[in-house]
Amino acid sequence: GIRHVSLCRMNAAALAFADGEFDAVYAPYVITVVDDPVSVAREMLRVCRTGGKLIFVNHFREKRPSLVSRAVRPLLARAMGVDWDLDVRTFVRETGMEPVSIESVNIPPVSSVLVCRKP
């Protein structure tokens, strides 16, 4: 019954949307499974309006990774191509986003919700 949503299949590094077309971009568990996470995030930033929000739910490398994270990260990288070794501070700096908040989620807390604003 949801009529105001359309699903589109496209390359995350070359989105077929105009600059500033969206008020918010939501990307759950995308950034660690693409070849170039910074380029993909910059593309998401491009389609977001100035002052808009970008919300990522993802596995980011912590400053001091938890025991669970250290144990699971190499297994997932080999088995599924998931790279949990993305440092959140480097990611934010290289994309040009303005961080608003980051919060650990899940049990155990191996994921984070990163909220950023387009400057």
What pattern of helices and strands is seen along the backbone? EHEHHEE
Distinct helical segment count = 3
Mean pLDDT: 87
Strand order of the largest sheet: 1-2-4-3
SS-based class:
alpha+beta
**How large a portion of the residues is in β-strands, by DSSP E?**
25-35%
In whole angstroms, the N-to-C terminal distance is: 35 Å
- Overall radius of gyration: 15 Å
Q: Unreliable stretches, pLDDT < 50, 5 or more residues?
A: none
User: Which percent bin holds the helix content?
Assistant: 25-40%
Account of the 3D structure:
The protein has helices at residues 37-47, 67-80, 88-95; strands at 22-28, 48-58, 98-105, 111-117. The chain is α+β, with helices and mostly antiparallel strands and 119 residues long. The radius of gyration is 15 Å and the shape is globular. The model has no long low-confidence stretch (mean pLDDT 87).
List the helices and strands and how they pair.
Blueprint: E1 22-28, H1 37-47, E2 48-58, H2 67-80, H3 88-95, E3 98-105, E4 111-117
Parallel strand pairs: 1-2
Antiparallel strand pairs: 2-4, 3-4
List the defining traits of the structure above.
119 residues, alpha+beta, 4-stranded mixed sheet, 4 strands, 28% helix
Quick summary:
With 119 residues, this protein is of the alpha+beta class.
